[in-house]
Each structure stands twice: as structure tokens, then as C-alpha cells.
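Worked problem 6 (solution included).
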Amino acid sequence: MSTASGLSSVIVLVVEDEAFSLRFVSRILQKIGITSVLEAENGTDALTVLEDSENKIDLIITDIEMPEMDGYELVRRVRYGAVPQYKDIPILMLTGQDTDSNVQKARIHKINGYIVKPPKIDQLQMFIEGALGL
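Solution. The predicted structure is:
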């Protein structure tokens, strides 16, 4: 199974409050073969998308710093079962800074990967495949 076909059925929720970053990540996902991308502007919107989605979402890619509900709070709520069927969903975090504090928080929140913005195509593909076990 080639990588592109392996990712073609994957549904990703991208949570990002900056329109440019959201479009950038969505374009990279399309380039690596992911055609189903759902979007949310913050953690509150993301929980609504998770609750309302007709199809099973396979992966969340979320920014950390967002208004209303940041990425860490979103992850905390997902991991504690706010939307029970997604309690163990793979989650990748996007950040502008790769600090020790952020890496430590990523471990605590059981995050599957930590990507510094802007993500490179091969790096994002590697993290996605790793998080999904491909």
C-alpha cells in the first residue's frame, strides 16, 4: 500500500485560529494525499465538530495558542472523554515555539507529536503516519 493511498481515506480535523496557517496546513495535507480535512477555529469549535461529524475523524492537528479554548485545554477535554469515541484519537500539536515547557506539556497530555510552524511536508507526513501507525 503506497503512502498516498494509505492516507487518502484519513479524515483530519485541523484546529487553528489563524486563517493563513489553517489554509497552509490544509494544503500540505492535500499534497500528501489527505482529501478529507475538517476545520475549526478554536477548541470550543473543535469539540462541536467532533460531536457533530457524520464520519469518524482519524486525527486532530491543533494549534496551541487560540482564543476561547487553547490546544492544551482541547486535548485535556478530549482525553477525559468530552466526546467519548475520540478519547484516544491521535493528536498532533502545532506551535510557533519548541520549548522544553511545551514538550513537557505534550507528554503530560498524551500528545502524539509536536510540530513547529510552519510544518514541512515530509515532517508532517512522518508525524501523521507515526500517529496513525502507518
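Discussion: DSSP finds six helices and five strands in the chain.
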